[in-house]
Specification:
The structure is a single chain. With 151 residues, the chain is an alpha/beta fold. The protein has 2 domains: 15-110, 3-Layer(aba) Sandwich (Rossmann fold), CATH 3.40.50; 121-150, no CATH class. 23% of the residues lie in helices and 11% in strands. The chain has helices at residues 46-55, 79-89, 121-134, and strands at residues 17-21, 59-63, 98-100, 108-110. A 4-stranded parallel β-sheet has the order 3-2-1-4, with helices on one face. The longest helix has 14 residues, at 121-134. It starts with 16 loop residues before the first strand and ends in a 17-residue tail after the last helix. The relative contact order is 0.18. The model is unreliable at 143-151 (pLDDT under 50).
């Protein structure tokens, strides 16, 4: 694979960082918070994608509210330790450079609950929210969000 050479002069440390949400992106958390543990399977395609991104020279940082220091211990482990253990048990830790409780500076964010604020801007977002709340389906000229949760 060809190594990327994108540069961000405002945040040089972010040039090669991809920030990846844990729950719903790497870890399939179909039970929600449940008991605070990391119980789900590896999200389909995650391992192959992480391996490929690492091979392209990116720094991969996982972020999750589970890793917050003010959350209670679960099985005598912090949330960060739970995530790190889950990554290790599922053969993903070799691709991950860090686990954070907040979004780090990054080139791009991979998040299952994100809306791509692109050319349609606020108008596109407000249409999406309105349709999501009302359950109305319409054809979009801009961004259309597909989610495994909606299927």
């Amino acid at each position: 694979m060809k190594e990327t050479n994108w540069k961000n002069p405002a945040y040089p440390e972010a040039d090669k960082t991809i920030a990846i949400d844990f729950d719903g992106v790497i870890h399939y958390n179909n039970k929600g918070f449940h008991d605070g543990t990391c119980y789900g399977d590896v999200f389909h395609g995650a391992k192959e994608s992480l391996k490929m991104l690492k091979g392209m020279g990116f720094k991969l940082v996982v972020y999750s509210a589970k890793a917050r220091s003010d959350r209670p211990l679960v099985n005598n482990k912090t949330g960060k330790e739970l995530i790190q253990s889950w990554l290790q048990e599922n053969g993903l830790s070799e691709y991950i450079d860090g686990v954070e409780s907040e979004k780090p500076s990054a080139f791009v964010y991979v998040d299952d609950k994100a809306f791509n604020f692109g050319p349609g801007g606020w108008r596109s977002f407000m249409r999406w929210v309105t349709d999501h709340v009302t359950g109305k389906k319409r054809k979009y000229k801009g961004h259309k969000r597909e989610s495994y949760r909606n299927k």
